[in-house]
Amino acid sequence: MAKHVAHARSRPRLPTLAVALLLVAIFRGLRATSALAWLAPPGGDETAESRSTGRRFLLQESAVAGTAAFWMPEEAQAFRQDRIFNAKQTLVPKIRKYYQKLEGLRDDLILQVEIEAGNRVEYQARPADWYSGLDGRFDGFLSFPGVQDARFGCNPYTIKPGSVVLVARGICTFQQKVQMAKAAGAKSIIVFDERMSKAPLEQQNRTGRVTSKGIQSWSAGDALSGAATVPIERGMTIMSVPAELGKAELDGAMIPRANGTSVVEAIQNGLTPRVLDVKRSKFEDGIDKFIKKDLPKLMTAMEGYSLIQRVSKADMSEPIVAQLKADRLEFEQAVKNRDYAEIRRTFKEWNGHLDSEIGTWELAETF
Ligand SMILES: *[C@@H]1O[C@H](CO)[C@@H](O)[C@H](O)[C@H]1NC(C)=O
Ligand SMILES: *[C@@H]1O[C@H](CO)[C@@H](O)[C@H](O)[C@H]1NC(C)=O
């Protein structure tokens, strides 16, 4: 009996339906006598250990529901992994986009740029996750490393020292762009999104690669993803460098592609655009619009991704599904209450209950 329980504790990889059903019976029996208390999440301290135990408990409970629904566990397991990988390709980029937009309502910077005398524009900019918080770092003349391949800022280049360098996203990591900008004497770096960045890094800058619909896309931070799928229009993101590489050496931010392109064009036309001032985004200014326009889409994507985490084919009442639903509703309420701290807390909570092995994802991106 102890052997069976130990077996059941790991992910269900059981050879036959008979064994699965036997286990279901054992589980049901144990549950009735509360002998499974050791599998339940301990109350009190929210340690990493207790969180993972809690998650295991949810999955274990779901596994029981799954086998009870007459699914061959191994088959169900493979089916479930496929489902999660696919959803990760399509739903996680949406969730990331809308959630970053939500955080951006408070964290984004507004760059006031003078393109030329009498022509001032404002660009929304998303600070990199290593941003020092010193807005003055983005003040000053804008420069760019060069045309064609040089625009990506992946190779050494020369600019006016002390200027804010504007480089296109793609071809190499944000880390490398920062290194090159630092070597060129830039004050800070602003990356503008490029269509190129939709392809996996190792496929960028390959001749013959098509940029129209149908190419592969890549969701950075999704360690296990990488399958072919529809392209993703990425917009702005929070830039990051992998933890093992340490801290990036220059402040950075990202602006939309159209904005970056127009500044580069202005410079090419002989103008000397500069950032005059940096303002902060105001949460109150955008949250109503977000609630009306974006929240329903974010909730739909989160719901889809939550349901995908289930173990069985069709049982929507599994514990993991119920938990994620509760988390989601809490998050939705926090947004509607316009409570920023609660928004962050509840979103983290929802994320923490996704499958810890294949369901998780990173908010920031590295290239
Ligand atoms: C892109 O490819 C071209 C041709 O292979 C090469 O010369 C160039 O250095 C590459 N650019 C970057 C940024 O890697
Ligand atoms: C900056 O880019 C955004 C998004 O593409 C666009 O809506 C906006 O009009 C641009 N701003 C300016 C001043 O060109």
Automatic annotation (TrEMBL):
InterPro entries for this protein: PA_dom_sf, PA_domain
Keyword Signal: yes
Signal sequence region: 1-32
Keywords: Signal
Domain PA: 150-201
Gene3D superfamilies: 3.50.30.30
Keyword hit for Translocase: no
Protein name: PA domain-containing protein
Organism name: Effrenium voratum
Lineage summary: Eukaryota, Sar, Alveolata, Dinophyceae, Suessiales
